[in-house]
């Protein structure tokens, strides 16, 4: 077997692995039937579908010729670092880290931090555009999760609401 597109081959393997893991994890829940779906039904079907898509992409990567073999480039360390850091910061700001004495600052502060930190992953940074995006995301998240879905979690820091 000769790999004719490295990018597609490894992307297909990733989809195949993640889909298989989700499908396998969904079997720990009650799957039910099409008429009476259990909590594992939808994740099982999505996992199987993702695994099938991954298998098709992997197969295509070994059969369809590409001009240069679509080699995988070097790791993009900067975007990887900032995207992961943004997600960690969001989680820490949302709920805090009591063991380290970091208080929970809530949803709004978490979204602003997430947006500003993740925007550093790109090659360009426009503070005004990032601020507008963070504001739209914060308002949209507040309306969606707090007003409409009525989820119970900290929105503002405790020193503001207390």
Largest sheet: none
Order of helices and strands: HHHHHH
Counting helices, strands and paired strands, the structural category is mainly alpha
Through-space gap between termini: 65 Å
The DSSP helix count reads: 6
- Number of DSSP strand runs: 0
Helix content range: 55-70%
Summed up, the domain count is 2
What radius of gyration results from the CA coordinates?
Answer: 21 Å
Average pLDDT for all residues? 90
State the low-pLDDT regions, or none.
none
Taken from the alpha-carbon principal axes, the silhouette is extended
**What is the percentage of strand-forming residues?**
under 5%
Keywords: Membrane, Transmembrane, Transmembrane helix
Organism: Verminephrobacter aporrectodeae subsp. tuberculatae
Protein name: Tripartite tricarboxylate transporter TctB family protein
Transmembrane segments: 41-63, 75-94, 100-122, 129-149
Give keywords.
0% strand; DUF1468; transmembrane helix; 2 domains; mainly alpha; 162 residues; 64% helix
């Amino acid at each position: 077997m000769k790999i004719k597109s490295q990018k597609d081959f490894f992307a297909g393997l990733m989809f195949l692995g993640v889909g298989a893991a989700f499908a396998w994890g969904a079997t720990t829940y009650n799957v039910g039937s099409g008429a009476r779906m259990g909590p594992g039904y939808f994740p099982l079907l999505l996992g199987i579908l993702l695994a099938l898509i991954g298998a098709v992409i992997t197969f295509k990567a070994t059969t369809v010729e590409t001009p240069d073999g679509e080699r995988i480039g070097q790791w993009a360390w900067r975007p990887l670092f900032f995207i992961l850091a943004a997600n960690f910061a969001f989680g820490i700001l949302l709920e805090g880290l009591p063991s380290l004495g970091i208080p929970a600052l809530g949803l709004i502060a978490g979204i602003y931090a997430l947006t500003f930190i993740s925007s550093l992953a790109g090659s360009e940074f426009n503070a005004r555009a990032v601020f507008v995006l963070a504001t739209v995301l914060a308002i949209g998240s507040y309306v969606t999760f707090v007003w409409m879905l009525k989820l119970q979690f900290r929105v503002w820091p405790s020193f503001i609401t207390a």
